[in-house]
């Protein structure tokens, strides 16, 4: 009897499905690619043909230029590639992010890509899909990682802002997904004041707005005076927190929105005064609860703390193994 998922071939540079003659999230150009989401460690330019959600294709176009071989696949729609049925299911990671369900010869394999279980006003929420093999990330695959409630972290940010009206709060947030989520979460809490953004965020913020995500009034930080930005929030890429660009801001309180802010040393290394533990990945409990809910017969673990999650599976009689994929990065989470 063939092993589960024997028709799936993990390689260091991606997952190949021979029966569909296609790759999932390949890290180098291929003739046919299925892409889970728009982060650069999953979506690369140069493929001959790409199947992804329309939002992911738009993100790829914004980052890599026109995608002439792009095929948009809506959530829940199915397509046939060779002898494989392919579906895209919400992953809850960033705008357009998807799990890819592959069905072949009576088996169901889900490549989850990156995912989170928390609600996020900027993207569709994760949908659990029962399957035989679940390929999961393990970015925060250690028991120490338990993310706090989102509103508590946003309350910390607003409290710092209101307590220091002569200063500003400079939030480092990754350009795709995290920056827009920080802004949308603040809006959901009733923060209606203009939010200033670094120029590197403008294109993707505009893309989110074009896809129906309300970010409220955004202003370019480079067009504003120091006095105008007092008492306001400025959002910028993490790389801008301590560079020359930030010196023109009014005595900024430096914050960073990332799941890695759980690790105190990471905050110290980045000179972060206000660490905000806000992740677009599942924490340890969400990873393990997802496996319990989905109840796969096998779990394949990739990019992250694979050993701990594999051990957790094995102690519960769930067959598990780590995949040796290269080229993945948390992109500042």
Automatic annotation (TrEMBL):
InterPro entries per UniProt: MBL, Metallo-B-lactamas, RibonucZ/Hydroxyglut_hydro, Xnuc_lig_assoc
Gene3D superfamilies, sorted: 3.40.50.10890, Ribonuclease Z/Hydroxyacylglutathione hydrolase-like (3.60.15.10)
Highest rank taxon of the organism: Bacteria
Gene Ontology MF terms in the entry: RNA endonuclease activity
SMART domains: Lactamase_B (SM00849)
Transmembrane domains' residue ranges: none
Metallo-beta-lactamase domain residues: 11-174
NCBIfam families documented for this protein: Xnuc_lig_assoc (TIGR04122)
Name the record gives this protein: Putative mRNA 3-end processing factor
Taxonomic lineage: Bacteria, Pseudomonadati, Pseudomonadota, Alphaproteobacteria, Sphingomonadales
